[in-house]
């Protein structure tokens, strides 16, 4: 197993190229199951989660070739319909093959995804939405068995206790595009990754309207054809490097970052005193003066992303004053708190609320995290901490950050990957 060693205290300066969005790539790869024709996806990041999805598609009979960031998916055996436990259990997002299999192959056998360190992650909304479309769903031997022979358009309410669900929306959308008649998804997620999925499906011939809102309309078509699509850039990766600029008192240009997809984070960083400018082809982020504490509440898009909560906490941990972070999407997503405190942060938890008393500095320590974004917050903390921070279990980072240490090295970080 590899670990990262970061020696903190360097000011980061330069340009970082933002990769294609992992959370767009996963559902778009699943969407290729909706056709037997060839699909080409561009700007696909090299990440272990993407490898997992490609393995699942191979299990499902697709032939996949990757050249750099271009992935070509061709039809092979289109009768297969089983996504096995061994793969699904390593990545919950594998559940997004369910809707496409039900719609196109009329049968799905997808392992029930297990628990998750960021808290309970039920799939009731996925199953409800697909049932409302007329799919027959049962659970047997740890697998979700879906039969889609009777699916037809319907009006579906997809809101849950925590608002809309990104992948439940993706699943229902993928099933609806091939269901006869009209589907209306109320309380749909409208994350940029859902909009990108709808864009790809439309290129394949789907009829979708209103995907930038919480009400998506779909008119089912008989068949979809192949398409070529370039993925949007990763707003969570971009947000993480924005925070790297702020926490190291740096100046970073994020090439390919999309300003409009990051408004909630930009608003909070500006409130804290960070200088942020939309530039041709990206965003420039600069530290210009001591930062102020801010209060943040995570919400579904366009609210503040839960996937940037941990990284924001690292910045607030070294910002003078009291900040409050309320987690409304995953109320238990605070695995990073104890590790940040081991580095000298002063954070207390009151249920889904973290109260952060900014400290003057952090000190490097051996740390580990069992979740992707929590690990990213430890990297940010390490970049500013005094001395060396050793981060173990970095396979979590490899799930979601393409080329992390090289990108950071290029802008001046003292970071290296070593074998444990
Ligand atoms: C996606 C993202 C993940 C991000 C999350 C929230 C991908 C691959 N992953 O995950 O990085 O953290 O959105 O922005 O895109 N819920 C239910 N029932 C369900 C489904 C979800 O109650 O059937 C709850 C969840 O427990 C959570 C909330 O709804 O509290 C939002 O989760 P959801 O949007 O579904 O997350 P994912 O789509 O799995």
Essential attributes:
single chain; 420 residues; alpha/beta; 4-stranded mixed beta sheet; 31% helix; globular; binds uridine-diphosphate-N-acetylglucosamine
Walk me through this protein's architecture:
The structure is a single chain. With 420 residues, the chain is α/β, with parallel strands linked by helices. Helix content is 31%, strand content 26%. The protein has 14 helices and 24 strands. The protein has helices spanning 22-31, 48-59, 85-88, 98-104, 124-132, 166-176, 192-203, 235-247, 263-272, 309-317, 335-342, 372-384, 395-400, 404-410, and strands at 2-7, 13-17, 39-42, 63-67, 70-74, 82-83, 107-111, 136-140, 143-147, 155-157, 182-186, 207-209, 215-219, 228-230, 251-255, 275-279, 282-286, 295-298, 322-327, 346-350, 353-357, 366-368, 388-392, 414-419. The strands form six sheets. A four-stranded mixed sheet has the order 22-23-1-24, with helices on one face. A four-stranded mixed sheet has the order 2-15-17-16. Strands 4-5-3-14 form a four-stranded mixed sheet, with helices on one face. Strand 18, helix 10 and strand 19 (322-327) form a beta-alpha-beta unit. Helix 6 (166-176) packs parallel to helix 7. The longest helix is centred in the middle third of the chain and has 13 residues, at 235-247. The N and C termini lie close together (6 Å). The mean pLDDT is 96. The structure holds uridine-diphosphate-N-acetylglucosamine. The site of uridine-diphosphate-N-acetylglucosamine (UD1) has 22 residues, from helix 1, helix 5 and helix 6. Uridine-diphosphate-N-acetylglucosamine (UD1) binds next to helix 1, helix 5 and helix 6.
